[in-house]
Amino acid sequence: MRKRVGVIGGGIAGATAAYHLLKADASLEIILLEAEDQMGHHTTGRSAALLLENDGVESTRSIAKASVDFLLNPPEGLTENIFVIPRDVMHIATVEQSSSVDRFLEKNSSGRIPTKEISKSEAKKRFPALREEGLDRFVVDEGAGDIDVHCLHQAYLNHFRKNGGQIMVSTRVDSARRSGDSWILETKTGEIPVDLIINAAGAWGDQVASRAGVKPVGLQPKRRTAFTVNSNDLDMQKWAMIADIDLRFYCKPDGLQFLCSLAEENPSEPCDAKHDEADVALAIERINKATTLDIRSVQTAWTGLRTFAPDRSMVIGVDPDESSFYWFVGQGGTGIMTSPGAGRLLSDLITEGKPSEHFNETGLNYADVSPERLRKK
Ligand SMILES: Cc1cc2nc3c(=O)[nH]c(=O)nc-3n(C[C@H](O)[C@H](O)[C@H](O)COP(=O)(O)OP(=O)(O)OC[C@H]3O[C@@H](n4cnc5c(N)ncnc54)[C@H](O)[C@@H]3O)c2cc1C
């Protein structure tokens, strides 16, 4: 009999899981279930779309390493577009933040292109609207880029669909119960039997687990707001992104606008997050202090939930107590750029029981992302 797999959640996590798993084992019958009427309605559609290898905890950096080649050189036949356009990321610091710069440089020497310190005049060339006064030190990540998130998400989904995968939108999985060796997924429109569950429900990951009788892992969704402002006809498309060295704000060219954020992390319940005007106002104040952009109004603002496990590593793999329930959550603030590596890892674990040789050179210690670590007291 063909094995049936139910992937719960149609964000980038569910999409890459479905894509990679079907590619690894075409005999599987995979159903991707999304609660909303649009895929990517929640966090995936609200990101800053950045590829920055020197970001996050060690395991995230390893998974990013396992993702870069896919993003820069997509597999034959997956897309006619490009997923990444290069963009430098420049971290800026005042005199008082000098020790943060030292720590930052020490920590970020492991990417393909290590972070390096540059002069103020070099920094001005990369972001001409920087204010001269106040800022003292500048470091740059040259191996970064902007990801076309919509294009990447759709590429996974289109490939999955074309190869026989099933997608059901407006289908919230309300609960799951065991039926012999299988599961019955309960939805408003009926029951769906599956043999294996992949929980890719983002901020709702623990809720989905609880409703399947599986112990939660302690996920914490955290709000982050972003907004766009007019570029006032500046020719800024090739400028670097700037980010405060302690991540108190960031600002990057985004088409004909700037995309800005306070980079806040405010705990939230899983929900359709809405932005708080005070977060936008504070970000504008900080960006105006560091630049001559003189931001006075906002085009659009939105908030998304970046969801973390307690140790900020992703949660990828089989549940220690339920051999047919796989976790694929906790992507935090890096779920887009790590999606190729994370999807590959999940599919390796399901089909081979361990990470494949693809991860050999990445430094990944699988124990760091295994769900088991979160069950140990
Ligand atoms: C402001 C901001 C900036 C960011 N910047 C970056 C960045 O620069 N680079 C980067 O890599 N990442 C970034 N991220 C993080 C990235 O967006 C996330 O890591 C990623 O989108 C998480 O994807 P996901 O599929 O896990 O979650 P989601 O996209 O939220 O998908 C989960 C899906 O599960 C569905 N679901 C939930 N419960 C059920 C159920 N019971 N039944 C069916 N479906 C269900 C939901 O409707 C949802 O669509 C940013 C995030 C934010 C908010």
Q: Can you tag this structure with a few keywords?
A:
nine-stranded mixed beta sheet, about 375 residues, D-Amino Acid Oxidase, Chain A, domain 2, six-stranded mixed beta sheet, 2 domains, single chain, binds flavin-adenine dinucleotide, alpha+beta
Number of strands: 21
Overall helicity: 10-25%
- SSE order, one letter for each helix or strand: EHEEHEEHEHEEHEEEEEHEEEEEHEEEH
The helix/strand class is alpha+beta
- Count of helical regions: 8
CATH superfamily of the largest domain: FAD/NAD(P)-binding domain
The best one-word shape is: globular
Please state the second-level CATH architecture of the largest domain. 3-Layer(bba) Sandwich
What is the secondary structure topology, with strand pairs?
Elements: E1 4-8, H1 12-24, E2 29-33, E3 50-51, H2 58-72, E4 84-86, E5 89-94, H3 98-107, E6 116-118, H4 120-126, E7 135-141, E8 145-147, H5 149-162, E9 166-168, E10 173-179, E11 182-187, E12 190-194, E13 196-199, H6 205-210, E14 220-230, E15 241-244, E16 250-254, E17 257-261, E18 266-267, H7 277-290, E19 300-308, E20 315-318, E21 325-329, H8 339-352
Parallel strand pairs: 1-2, 1-13, 2-9, 5-15, 13-21
Antiparallel strand pairs: 3-8, 4-8, 5-7, 6-7, 10-11, 11-12, 14-17, 14-18, 14-19, 15-16, 16-17, 20-21
Helix pairs in contact: 1-5, 1-8, 2-8
Bound molecules: flavin-adenine dinucleotide.
Flavin-adenine dinucleotide binds near residues 14, 261, 335, 336 and 337.
